[in-house]
From TrEMBL:
This is Sigma-70 family RNA polymerase sigma factor. One of its GO terms (molecular function) is DNA binding. InterPro entries: RNA_pol_sigma-70-like, RNA_pol_sigma-70_dom, RNA_pol_sigma70_r2, RNA_pol_sigma70_r4_t2, RNA_pol_sigma_r2, RNA_pol_sigma_r3/r4-like, WH-like_DNA-bd_sf. Residues 119-165 form the RNA polymerase sigma factor 70 region 4 type domain. GO terms for biological process: DNA-templated transcription initiation. Keywords: Sigma factor, Transcription, Transcription regulation. Belongs to the sigma-70 factor family. ECF subfamily. It comes from Sphingobacterium alkalisoli. Residues 19-84 form the RNA polymerase sigma-70 region domain.
């Protein structure tokens, strides 16, 4: 957070330090998702350029790594979309690595990870009821019988769990 303040104040030394600290991590993050050295290199560089250009609007309440990895993810998706469009208009085959399905897979995997983290952070009973219902397909009656609670209580736990997930997803989309 101190680093963000310094970067917002045009401190090139702090920016260089952040670059040294996170360059390899960003590269690895992108490489893991795309399996392309070209994309990983390009996205890494574009991320740090964007980070510097947008330094005035960085959030001083969030850690550097949170903002940097968020930017890297968005830059990666933007680049993949741009490449997919370019290949489409140049008449390249649909078997190129830059396809909409790759973008969808990356977005879905990230979204599933976020949802799984949210589920793990739920109160214990809410999480157990939600997992039994949604992951194992048990009915409200079966869950109620299993935990000696009413089906209405099961319904409330599931409703609260869904509301929690929706609220978090909504906050991410903003």
């Amino acid at each position: 957070m101190e680093h963000i303040k310094a970067i917002k104040a045009d401190n090139h030394q702090v920016f260089s330090w952040v670059y040294e600290q996170y360059h390899q991590q960003i590269y690895g993050f992108i490489m893991q998702r795309t399996r392309s050295e070209y994309i990983a290199e390009e996205v890494t560089q574009l991320t740090f350029i964007k980070f510097w250009k947008q330094r005035n609007i960085l959030n001083e309440e969030l850690d550097v790594n949170v903002q940097l990895f968020g930017m890297a993810r968005q830059v990666m998706i933007d680049l993949l979309r741009k490449e997919a469009t370019r290949f489409k208009y140049e008449g390249e085959s649909a078997t190129t690595p830059f396809t909409d399905s790759l973008i969808d897979a990356i977005e879905s995997r990230d979204l599933l990870q976020l949802m799984e983290q949210d589920i793990q952070n739920m109160p214990k009973m809410r999480r157990l009821v939600f997992e039994l219902s949604r992951k194992q397909g048990l009915s409200h009656k079966e869950i109620a019988h299993l935990y000696s609670i009413s089906p209405k209580t099961v319904e409330q736990h599931i409703g609260k769990a869904l509301m929690q997930l929706k609220q978090h997803l909504y906050s991410i989309m903003l």
